[in-house]
Amino acid sequence: MSREKPRLARLTAILTQLQSKRIVTATDIAVKHHVSIRTVYRDIRTLEQSGIPIVTEEGKGYSLIDGYRLPPVMFTEEEANALIMAEHLILRNKDQSLVEQYQNAISKIKSVLKRPQKAKTEVLTERIQIRNNRTNEKTSNFLIQLQSNIINYEIVQLHYISLNNQQTQRKIEPFALYTTKNNWVLIAFCHIRNDFRAFRLDRIQQLTKTQAHFEPHKITLDQYFDNCRKKCESTPDIPLSQTQSTFASNQKE
User: Fold this and answer.
1) For residue 141, which of 88, 94, 108, 107 has the smallest C-alpha distance?
2) What phi and psi, each to the nearest 5 degrees, are found at residue 177?
């Protein structure tokens, strides 16, 4: 059975997709909405003819002209429920900065919900309980800042207590973040080690942005973890599913 949406619903969804990313390829749209590339071209022309200012970048994809904003998004019941579930998960996260910024964002999202949706989300909020991190302990407060450092390629000064309780100062190039058991780990290129290292956010004492920037690293996160797995292949007793976390643990400062 075809999963293709009715055209009006699809056009609306494509608009939301265009607003959610800087640039969207025809293939991205085709895959998301289960249509052909030719159908995507027709849909884009229809949106352009209706007055939507779409910019076509040859060989790259489509984007909305800078400054153009769509009316507030209307959420389906399932989408609203998913947001409420995400709220409960994030409230139990151990990074304070993430919790605070998500609470700000979810308040704005809830403000555009229709009245019946608001009533239903309030009921759902009372019926969900996340059991991990029951004490609601917060162990770090640097996640949001590091997200900004990563996307702006900013070198930061790190005051850190290592796993053997040694205090160190490092200059690092933040590369990526991953979470385990609601705690966060930063992957960064360390100037002292001249290599990538993993830093637990709960052991960071101070984080200061410098005025210096770095060139984007010529590696993706998937490639980084693939390299981790390859370096662990010489340890045959460790299951493949554990090699990623094992190597990352070995790299932790």
Assistant:
1) 94
2) -135, 145
Question: In sequence order, what are the residues at sequence separation of 6 or more whose Cβ sits closer than 8 angstroms to the Cβ of residue 112?
Answer: 72, 73, 74, 75
Residues 49 and 93 in one domain: no
Is the distance from CB of 5 to CB of 13 less than 8 angstroms? yes
CATH of the domain at 42: 1.10.10.10
Instruction: Say what the pLDDT of residue 207 is.
Output: 95
Q: State which residues of the chain have pLDDT below 70.
A: 1-5, 70-73, 234-252
Residue 87 belongs to a domain: yes
Segments in 50-154 forming alpha helices (H): 77-91, 96-111, 115-126, 143-151
| Domain annotation covers residue 133 | no
Amino acid identity of 127? R
Which pTM does this prediction carry? 0.68
Enter the tokens of residue 94.
């151990």
CA 149/CA 209 separation, integer angstroms? 8
pLDDT for 186-211, tens place per residue? 999 999 999 999 999 999 999 999 99
- Domain holding 13, by residue range, is 7-64
